[in-house]
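Course assignment 3, question 2. Fill in each field.
Student: A.L.
Task: Predict the tertiary structure for the chain below.
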Amino acid sequence: MIAGHRIAALLSFEGPDRYASVGGLGTRETSFARALGEAGVETTLFFIGDPALAPVEEFAENVTLRRWGQWLSAYHPRGVYDGETGKVEDFTRSIPPFVADEIVAPALLREERVLVVAEEWHTVPAVIALDALLRVRGWRDRVTILWNANNTYGFELIDWVALQRAAAVMTVSKYMKFELGRFGVHALVVPNGIAEQLLDGPPHELVVRFQKALTGKPSLVKVGRFDPDKNWMQAIDAVAELREMGFGPQLIVRGGREPYGEAVFERARRQGLRIDRVEANGDDAEAVASALAASDAQVVHLQAFLPDTTLAALYAAADAVLANSGKEPFGLVGLEVMAAGGIPVCGATGEEYAEPFVNAIVCDTDDGRELAEYVRAALVEPRSADRMRQAGYATAQRYLWQSVLETLGHKITYVMGSHR
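Answer field:
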């Protein structure tokens, strides 16, 4: 139970399916739902799921998945945001009556409160419509509605006045609270969490295999969408700087399909860096390790979807993981790297858990020289690097979902007393 709530509905576009998992939101929703279920909250996660999978699935303890809008997704096979406009319209039309009839009404018969947590701009019209429907039915005072901002995407499309009437606004960092303040929105801060099992780390033998594959090549890993906000150019420039310093660095890249990727690789070519596009079966960790071992290029574009375990092993084996975004609302990857035993390189925005040279490398600029200098220091001072890995693991322990849910409970108690 969370602040008197035994029933919860999570509304999101992203979720656990590969079709629906694009960035940190899919990871957040999956682990958030699991954590609520483990806390004894009967949780339903609504998301735009794979059209080929079951519409309803018992996913984990007290957690049910509902893959929404599959009829639309069947016409848009490239992923959750393919056909985005139509999916938003369908979500807005169909989610509110379903939640009211199938989630809220049965709970009211049992005299139980319902918690609704919606994520990102896509769900805003549905939240506003749900609030209106519950008021018409006289049920609004039995439902706590929260809307959470993980990023600034789509902010220009949101009716902030209507949203704040319909729900209490949350966000994941003080940085994001400031961003919301620019729109005149007051937000409660509840950080993201990580699952406790991440602290077990990847299998030791898998980490050793990747370490052997990367031996002799100071290795940097960068995973994420090809987007200017991710400071890809800084990463490329840092590799060139490290080469000039006499190191033989290798940047392992796993990006998306965004066209900005070509600009990133063109920057690498202009810097005189060799690029190797490597295809591998991501489900075969040995194949991935062998492919990395065989490449001596400065930039390796790894074209494979890596399972979480393989990705964590790569994080742990690398000398640093570049989560060096110029604008990062929270930086969930940084915590995941810490839990795996790696060293994250963060920017200086939403990653409030990152302490420079204590548990992470933190860049204040988008200058490749700054990043290169900090990585150089970690390479030549292995004891300092080991201390950062140990301190990072201790930091990850403080952001387990159990602790985050306790914070969330206090915020909900406040909302129940103040939000109408």
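Instructor remarks: Residues 131 and 166 are 5 Å apart (CA to CA). DSSP finds 15 helices and 15 strands in the chain.
Grade: pending
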